[in-house]
Amino acid sequence: MEGTSLGSAPGPEPEPGPPVDLSSLPVEVWLQILMHVPPRTLVTRCRAVCRQWRALVDGPRLWRLLWAQAKDAPSQALLVATHRCPPAARPCSWARLGILGPLARNLLQNTCGEEGFRKWKVKDGGDGWNVERNLRPVPGAPAQTCFASSFRWCQKRQVVNLLAQGLWPELLDDPRAEIHVSDWWGARSDCGSQYWLHVRLVAANGRTVLARFDAEPEPIPCPNDNPYLQVSHVFTNFPNGVRYVIFEHAGKDTQFWAGHYGARVTHSCVKVYFRAP
Question: What domains can be seen in the chain, in order of their start residue?
Answer without folding.
Answer: 27-100 (1.20.1280), 121-274 (2.60.120.260)
